Amino acid sequence: MSKKEKLTREQKKEKQRAEYEAMSQKEKEFFDYNKKWHTIGRIWNTIGILLIIAVPFVVCFSLKVTPNWTVFGNLGIWTLIIINLGSGISEPVIYAPMLGTNGEIEPEEWIKACPCFDAASILQDSVPPNPAYL
């Protein structure tokens, strides 16, 4: 079993370029679409993070006050930080693949489609009686 060889940055770019050229036109359009929305998402995430960080500093500066840092020594605060940190990391990891970039179910987004049943046909049929209450 051989280890993967380390590629330089230029070799990686050349490999990606070759893979892109080997794609069909539809695959290229889908790749470009995902790349565009990934870039837009990164920009807006950066803006959002900067705003979240900036608001407390702006408020403290405008009111000429400083935070009481001794509060962070309290065990209750650390418990809340740990709980929120866990959910803050897990939610984007779990929901991002399910929601996609535009919130619409498209044919290539197989995670969103449920192949096990057709909800429209189930909703059209009348509900059968529950045998326990007959």
Structure overview:
This protein is mostly helical. 63% of the residues lie in helices and 0% in strands. The radius of gyration is 25 Å and the shape is flat. The chain starts with 8 loop residues before the first helix and ends in a 10-residue tail after the last helix.
List keywords for this structure.
134 residues; 63% helix; mainly alpha
Short structural summary:
The protein is an all-alpha fold and 134 residues long. It has 4 helices and no strands.
| H/E element order | HHHH
Largest β-sheet summary: none
- Principal-axis shape equals flat
Chain oligomer state: single chain
Alpha-carbon Rg, integer: 25 Å
Beta-strand share of residues? under 5%
The average pLDDT value, as a whole number, equals 80
- CA distance, first residue to last residue: 65 Å
Number of strands: 0
Q: Helical stretch count?
A: 4
> How does the helix and strand content classify structurally?
mainly alpha
Level of helix content? 55-70%
Give the uncertain stretches in residue-range form.
none
